[in-house]
Design brief:
Largest sheet: 8 strands, mixed
Distance between the termini: 18 Å
Helix content: 25-40%
Shape: globular
Number of strands: 18
Structural class: alpha/beta
Amino acid sequence: MRKGKRAIRWMIFWASALALGGLSVSGGTSAPVLVGRERHVIAGYDEPNTPPLSPVSERVRAAITDPAAFVDGHLNLNRAIYVRFFDRGREAPPRSIVIFIPGIVAGANSFERLADQLVHRSGGAVEVWAVDRRANLLEDARAMIAAEKAQTMAAALAALDAYQNHPSGPGGVLANPPYEYELSRFMAEWGLDVHLRDLKAIVQQARNSGGASRPQIFLGGHDFVGADLAALFAAYDFDGVPGFTLIDGLILLDGTPSVAASPRAPQIRSDEEYLRSGVVIGGMLRIPGLHRLRHPEESGEPPFLGGDLFGPFSFQLAEILAQFALYAPHRASPLPVDIGPPVPSTNVAAFALNTDDEFAEQAQQRFSFGFLAVPPGRSVADVAESRPDPDRANPNGLFAPRDLGTDPDGRPVLQDWAGVRDLSPLGLEGKEVSDWEDVARGFLYGAGNGEVDVSRGEANFIEWFFPQRLVLDILLAARLDTSSLSSAILNALTERGGNPLTVIHNREVNVPVLGISAGQGIFAGETRPLPTVFAFFPYQRSIASTRFCATEVSEYAHNDVLWSREPRVADLIIAFMNGGCPR
């Protein structure tokens, strides 16, 4: 009986929601929808320490190869970037534009699958603008794009060699001293205010895109950073204009302002932490204080996330792993153990061991798209060792691949990958909703189909040079109110020509909000045994909106929200934009 009532309630919800706004979820119109994509680079906020307002050495200038980083022949990094996904056959302006902000170290291509679904399922009435932060202009993608054009293992190996054995060090010129320190002159100032003002330029572009018939503008964010930036934009004061007055709704995808989600979430608790000592996130990622970022010669701190796990070369390597998996999936991975898979593996297994939800260490890395291949007559225990999930997100726990030894000829037996859609035959829970090939292609540039043009500067999945200052400022503003910052912090914010942080309108935010959580996502360990949607409720109580919709996609890992083959998330978003509110 209870199941029947639930089914009736959902039928009523879908019928009422779809009757309101006229955005289709059938995927069909009188003409087929053909999704196009365009990268746009527009004027961003003029941060005074950033080129062209402050010069750089010729060596740094030569290392920046993205054509979009130059305006009239002059280096200009005060730019705002978005990738527009739209119906090429649509002649009228879109009814709605969803501007999506990626999570930490993610780029515009992380939204490729969801954007395609939204454009299709709305019959072309919705456009998606996926944001790339300004640091993406620093990526020298030439070797990567050359490999993607060739789509061969040899070309991918050449790209790996170009980044790993670069004369300046792994990752290239800008990833290593002394030039990474030169980047600090401006990247140390690329904090919350700069990024929100870049985002405002994109929002304004969207508002103006329909002429007299302004489209609805929805601002969305995924993960930590993406969801925080969306909420902070709504609460921000832009020289007397509250951010929420520029948009028609917020969409939070498996993310919500961090302190709202959990009192144990990282935040800045003292002037000393913000100005000097910094903070540690998750016991592994240390964010330095502002003084250390501004004085790298004495601190040794890069202006971007660095180290073995987070940094330009590790991100380049992740994208090359995706190339290996696509171009020679079942060939032995050529990577040594120190940078490759922990046991002899095929290329596809090497990629999946870093990203699948049964193997990836951090919940933020995870997609669900299969399991290691289990030979006939063998069990999961024969190929992988079970262990607890430290994030308590996956009910199956995590697994570590076993060394399978050698064959009769003395050759290593390779771990391989099976892109199965249901784990129950293996004695594990859940269906696998994403596809490893989709995800691997999304890691590449453009559409991941080899049709890339370096002169246009294509978008990719990962942000190689993610500014540490942005994380530091988000942690400072984590309570969504910066009205009582100390004079010491205010002076530090403005001493190099910057603006104070004006997160002062959060209690006034009255636009509709949709929160979609992944049942096996980043909130699972915080909310169990309660549903993961409970992570949204502290944020709901902090704002004035009377339409706050929160729903859970129960079997999804964190990144399945963006990459699932099924359009559940896209349909929920369209229903929300039509005035519906899933429960």
